[in-house]
């Protein structure tokens, strides 16, 4: 083989798209299943049962399509509605009425009626492409930013303008780490707040632990770390949540808050301001 120095331009000029077919056997089966559903104005529990009885996994996929839920979001919703125990075919066979009732509470019959009786127009294709692509990313950003705004509003209420947001702070031995709020400033914060809000399981949930550990490693021992989080998806990642709670129990994180703990966070911020003389 001839030895040759290649260039970026050469590689770029020779790139080609990796086009693949998105529809596999599972998708084709789901489309066939929903296409065979009789069109009528109202759907009920028997119609849901018909979806699940033939092929449970395919039926759950169809239910997700009607409800416009991702796999992770569907898991979270089913666990919330069904409580302790599984959410798969074994649970359905053991408690069919309870399972069907849970899907009714998720408004599956209404979603079926709305989708099946909908009269589409050509722009729906573009809307769906936008929703599943850019729209999904925007939803994630809004969840995270909404929780950050929640925390910042309380910080501002207590400390006025004496804080910095979305910054890299300097801690012990000049170590640095990123955080969402540094009080009173990023050069030598006395309080550091990390905010994480996700609504999907996956690597990002585990990444939260890495971000917290980076802060714990960098901050001074006299800097208080507060963690604000929320989202029902934690119920599907209790092992990761336990690791964070363990860090709180070890004193590495002072306190963990959710939006329902607003008054606790506000009270603790006021106490910290007084005891630290900020």
Question: Which helices and strands occur, and which strands form pairs?
Answer:
Elements: H1 8-13, H2 25-35, H3 45-54, H4 56-67, H5 71-82, H6 89-94, H7 96-105, H8 108-116, H9 123-159, E1 164-170, E2 176-183, E3 191-197, H10 203-218, E4 224-230, H11 238-249, E5 255-257, H12 262-276
Parallel strand pairs: 3-4, 4-5
Antiparallel strand pairs: 1-2, 2-3
Protein name: DpnII restriction endonuclease
GO molecular function: DNA binding; type II site-specific deoxyribonuclease activity
InterPro entries: Restrct_endonuc_II_DpnII-like
Largest sheet: 5 strands, mixed
Question: In terms of per-residue confidence, which ranges show pLDDT below 50 for 5 or more consecutive residues?
Answer: none
The total count of helices amounts to: 12
Number of domains: 2
Structure characterization notes:
- With about 280 residues, the chain is an alpha/beta fold.
- The chain has two domains: about 20-120, no CATH class; about 140-275, Trna Endonuclease, Chain: A, domain 1, CATH 3.40.1350.
- It is built from twelve helices and five strands.
- α3 (about 45-55) crosses α4 (about 55-65).
- The longest helix has about 35 residues, at about 125-160.
- It is elongated and about 70 Å long.
Keywords:
five-stranded mixed sheet, Trna Endonuclease, Chain: A, domain 1, alpha/beta, elongated, 5 strands, 278 residues
Summarize the structure.
By secondary structure, the chain is α/β, with parallel strands linked by helices.
């Amino acid at each position: 083989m001839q030895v040759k120095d290649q260039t970026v331009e050469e590689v770029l000029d020779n790139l080609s798209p990796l086009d693949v077919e998105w529809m596999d056997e599972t998708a084709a089966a789901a489309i066939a299943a929903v296409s065979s559903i009789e069109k009528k104005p109202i759907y009920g529990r028997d119609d849901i049962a018909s979806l699940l009885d033939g092929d449970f996994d395919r039926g759950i996929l169809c239910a997700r399509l009607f409800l416009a839920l991702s796999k992770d979001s569907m898991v979270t919703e089913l666990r919330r509605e069904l409580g302790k125990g599984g959410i798969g075919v074994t649970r359905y066979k053991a408690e069919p009425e309870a399972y069907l009732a849970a899907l009714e509470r998720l408004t599956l019959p209404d979603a079926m009626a709305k989708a099946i009786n909908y009269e589409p127009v050509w722009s729906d294709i573009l809307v769906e492409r936008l929703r599943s692509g850019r729209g999904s990313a925007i939803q994630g950003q809004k969840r995270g930013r909404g929780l950050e705004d929640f925390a910042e509003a309380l910080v501002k209420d207590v400390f006025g303008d004496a804080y910095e947001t979305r910054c890299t702070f300097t801690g012990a031995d000049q170590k640095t780490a990123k955080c969402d709020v540094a009080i009173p400033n990023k050069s030598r914060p006395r309080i550091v707040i990390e905010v994480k809000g996700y609504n999907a399981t996956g690597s990002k949930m585990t990444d939260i632990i890495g971000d917290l550990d980076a802060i714990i490693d960098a901050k001074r021992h006299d800097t208080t770390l507060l963690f604000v989080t929320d989202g029902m998806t934690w119920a599907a990642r209790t092992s990761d949540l336990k690791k964070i709670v363990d860090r709180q129990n070890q004193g590495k994180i002072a306190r963990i808050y959710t939006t329902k703990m607003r008054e606790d966070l506000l009270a603790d911020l006021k106490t910290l301001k007084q005891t630290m003389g900020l």
